[in-house]
Amino acid sequence: MSVVDNGRLQERLGESRLIAILRGSDVDATVAAARTLLDAGVLTLEIALTLDGAEEAIAQVVKDAPAGAMIGAGTALTPADVDRAVSAGAQFMVTPTLSQSVGYAVREGIGVLPGVYSPTEIQRGLDLGAAAVKLFPASGLGPGFIRAVREPLPHARIIPVGGVSVGSVGEYLEAGAFAVGVGGPLLGDAATPSGDLAALAARAAAFRRAVARP
């Protein structure tokens, strides 16, 4: 797998509308959870670099990922983070803020989703050339914020992350969200050594149904 640029990342997210966020504490469990998600048809994954051994996890997941999958690296804060993630096989980057890694990734032709929290930051992230922006944490703002921001900024591609449940997916998409990013409500305990992968597969199916609704 090779990196995807911002145009391709934007296109793919517009189709799938779902990013699964894996912020685990164990490499083997994270890899197992990622494979379960891929088998369940959730093909866009973000593996956080906060995991000790994140590069190993990314490399293992990328190796076995099916055609059409996109594996990204989360919490990529610096150019060095971007470089080590790409070396492990990551295809795109996600950040919690408008960190220096955002401009670096754009210049290197690597798709990136920068974290934002205000209309100014949303526009700044898009001006930098990002595929879309990650509204984080979305739980403090809600679907109404996205709807309000997109009135003066109808071009804004906003992906809410943080507190998005299967029940609120429809509200966010109806408000104009470009896609949704989901961590805990989807992963549950699956990225831990004792995680329930069957329950993860069932939740993945539920989230896929939620994003597929008109």
Give a description of the structure.
The chain is an alpha/beta fold. The protein is built from ten helices and nine strands. α2 (about 25-40) links the parallel β1 and β2 (about 45-50).
Topology:
Layout: H1 6-16, E1 18-22, H2 27-39, E2 44-48, H3 54-64, E3 70-74, H4 79-88, E4 92-94, H5 100-107, E5 111-113, E6 115-116, H6 119-127, E7 133-135, H7 143-149, E8 158-160, H8 169-174, E9 180-182, H9 184-187, H10 197-212
Parallel strand pairs: 1-2, 1-9, 2-3, 3-4, 4-5, 6-7, 7-8
Helix pairs in contact: 2-3, 2-10, 3-4, 4-5
Give a quick rundown of the structure.
This protein is α/β, with parallel strands linked by helices. It is 44% helix and 15% strand.
Q: What's the helix count?
A: 10
Shape: globular
| Biggest beta-sheet profile | 6 strands, parallel
The largest beta-sheet arranges its strands as: 5-4-3-2-1-9
Order of helices and strands: HEHEHEHEHEEHEHEHEHH
Q: End-to-end span in angstroms?
A: 31 Å
Low-confidence stretches: none
Mean pLDDT: 96
Overall helicity: 40-55%
Strand content: 5-15%
Structural category is alpha/beta
Name the descriptors:
six-stranded parallel beta sheet; 214 residues; 10 helices; globular; three-stranded parallel beta sheet; alpha/beta
